[in-house]
Design brief:
This protein is mainly α and 410 residues long. The protein is 75% helix and 0% strand.
Length: 410
């Protein structure tokens, strides 16, 4: 058997170069995707032949991202994360150029094609953290997961700002913004290809041989384990609640009589809440264990939704969505920590595909149903409905008796 690679950490315990390169990739990813999320609904409203089709480009981005999430993991199990992530970035480059052409030619359905391709790229975002976890010693996997998410902190601030500032740089309005999507995605390619372990190791599966693919952990072998159930519950519930409340936040703010800039401020603080805790959530999960960190994250989701149900003042919106963002981060990191326990390093492509694909489906359903739920229940009722599932998860983790454990070494 070939000798395993030297861990991607140095003697001081710091995470190595590959993890920091992946953090840069995560920043470029979130910055690029946030451009589409910031502008596509507005551009669609201006270009759509009817108002009913205004959100079709954004919907296609979500649908293609959801469908491709499972395929990304399965292809990664066969060909390796680096190759698949690089191809995803190349697809986004094409999608951004197609969207730029659409704006230049005022072609709505060309815009739909471009955003659909960016949606495929969107499906790759969660796999940067899994690749980081494969490149460090077992004891550092949780820190690697959260460190990569730190890339979203700067992207949450830079992305929406860059989207508006670049809108008039090339030809028609917003053409420059979509060209920026291509540039940011193109920058991912050389960075992700530079991510390598210190020496070749069979666990990386970059060669894509049949032997390595056969060794990938099968989902049916882990689906009944407590680690898999906890990973799925934390990731799916936190994503669903966060997506729904983020989607109805601007609508609720507008209905409450707040200005457009105030609604944007609410979402900005929500995104800061989502990513800023990554600076410490990995160390917290390592120190406390994913169970206690997951309970804290679920509790903050419940608290945020509960505060949101108490009023429609500006402070209630900001505190509510801010806490929901922090709760999502803690639950997301702890759920990811449980996920990487389900397989030996480098052998989790199929498990990752199942978890990411299922989580993406939950997020898509929450996004699509958000407006309907809000129209029926209002801001207060939506928050009360949203706190039910994280409350159940919190209680379930609190009474769980399965001891915390680490998986056997590969």
């Amino acid at each position: 058997m070939a000798e395993a690679a030297r861990p991607a950490t140095n003697k001081t315990g710091r995470l190595g170069r590959p993890v920091y390169l992946l953090t840069i990739c995560q920043f470029l990813y979130y910055a690029g995707v946030s451009v589409d999320l910031t502008l596509t609904a507005v551009v669609g409203l201006e270009m759509a032949p009817t108002g009913a089709l205004a959100t079709l480009p954004l919907t296609l981005m979500t649908v293609t991202g959801t469908i491709a999430s499972y395929a990304t993991g399965m292809l990664s199990a066969r060909y390796g994360h680096r190759s698949v992530l690089a191809v995803g970035a190349c697809i986004a480059v094409t999608g951004g150029l197609v969207s730029t052409l659409a704006v230049q030619t005022d072609s709505f359905f060309t815009l739909c094609a471009g955003t659909g391709m960016v949606g495929v790229y969107r499906s790759t975002g969660g796999y940067f953290r899994f690749l980081a976890a494969d490149l460090v010693p077992k004891a550092s996997r949780t820190r690697a997961l959260s460190t990569v998410l730190c890339g979203g902190v700067a992207a949450a601030i830079v992305g929406p700002w860059a989207a508006t500032q670049s809108s008039g740089l090339v030809g028609a309005e917003f053409a420059g913004s979509y060209l920026l999507v291509s540039c940011l995605a193109f920058a991912v390619v050389p960075v992700i290809l530079a991510v390598r372990p210190a020496s070749p190791r069979p666990a990386e599966a970059d060669s894509g041989t049949e032997e390595e693919t056969a060794q990938a952990t099968r989902v049916r072998d882990v689906v009944h384990t407590s680690d898999f159930r906890r990973a799925f519950s934390l990731l799916a519930v936190s994503t669903g609640v966060m997506t729904m409340l983020m989607a109805v936040g601007p609508i609720g703010s507008k209905h409450a009589g707040h200005s457009l800039s105030q609604g944007a401020m609410v979402i900005q603080w929500h995104m800061v809440g989502m990513f800023a805790p990554a600076l410490f959530s990995g160390r917290l999960t390592t120190a406390w264990g994913p169970r206690w960190t997951g309970m804290l994250g679920a509790s903050l989701l419940v608290t945020g939704a509960g505060i949101g149900s108490l009023g429609t003042g500006m402070s209630a919106f900001m505190v509510s969505l801010g806490l929901v963002g922090v709760g999502w981060n803690l639950a997301y990191v702890s759920g990811s920590a449980y996920a990487v326990r389900c397989y030996p390093q480098g052998k989790g492509g199929r498990v990752q595909a199942t978890i990411e694909g299922s989580t993406a489906c939950v997020g898509a359903m929450a996004s699509f149903s958000a407006n309907l739920v809000f129209s029926q229940l209002g801001w207060t009722g939506t928050n009360l409905a949203a706190l039910v599932l994280p409350l159940i998860v919190c209680v379930w983790l609190a009474v769980a008796r399965t001891p915390e454990r680490e998986p056997a070494a590969a």
